[in-house]
Amino acid sequence: MAAFFALSACGQPNYTYVKDNGGTTYFKVPSSYTQLDADPLEALLSGNNPGSAAAAERKQRVWSTAFDQSTQPQVLHLFGSNDAFVYAAVHKLTDEERDSMSLNQMRDFILPVTEQTRSMYLSQFTGTGRQPLFTNFESLGDKVIQLDKGARGVRTRFNYEIGGQVQTFDQTAILDEKGATVSILLFRCQSQCFQARGGEFEKIIESFKLLRLPG
Questions:
Q1: pLDDT score, position 8
Q2: Confidence (pTM)
């Protein structure tokens, strides 16, 4: 479970403040959002059977949590609903991942974003008669992040059409200064919702930080 607590100030909305188990990654969401059990979402994203050794190994390396603004919250809302959805994760990288981690790999950490990865994703459906879930990609912005002591990352915003609706995703991925972990915040809302409430959502997205612990 995420470590979290709610605070309020006079005239200000309540927020849930969230840290990962290691206490190095931080963000906040309005307390009206419902926190979800992230295990089913991890199974969905990884494709691992929950009872498999791969799932057990991933659980040792990945901390994650999710929050849904919907009145009927569910993990599938990561990929589409009319309400806001927040997914956060901290991945402890394997030696192989640490040696190869790049900004493009951080862009593609959850969904296909770069042109090469999108092409590979769509090629899986060629000649199968099946339709891809994610279509009509639109890039809305991309910014490289340089932090102190060598930590770095990238923030990218993009649209995908999913089930006939355009969904806007805003993803921040940060590699810590040791190259040991990648911290991810993925925010999603239907595109018109995002346009209308962008200022509100920006407070959530910009709250995502790496914390410096003593020592």
A1: 39
A2: 0.89
CA distance 7 to 2: 16
Q: Is 79 helix (H, G, I), strand (E, B) or coil?
A: helix
Distance, CA of 19 to CA of 3 (rounded, Å): 5
Q: How far apart are CA 144 and CA 148, in angstroms?
A: 14
Structure-token pair, residue 30? 């309005």
Give yes or no for a contact between 174 and 182, defined as CB atoms under 8 angstroms apart: yes
Instruction: Answer for the pair 190, 81: CB distance below 8 angstroms, yes or no.
Output: yes
Report the pLDDT value the prediction gives residue 13, as an integer from 0 to 100. 55
Please list the alpha-helical segments (H only) found in the chain.
Answer: 39-46, 53-61, 95-100, 103-107, 115-123, 191-196, 198-206
- The span from the first CA to the last CA of the chain, in angstroms, equals 25
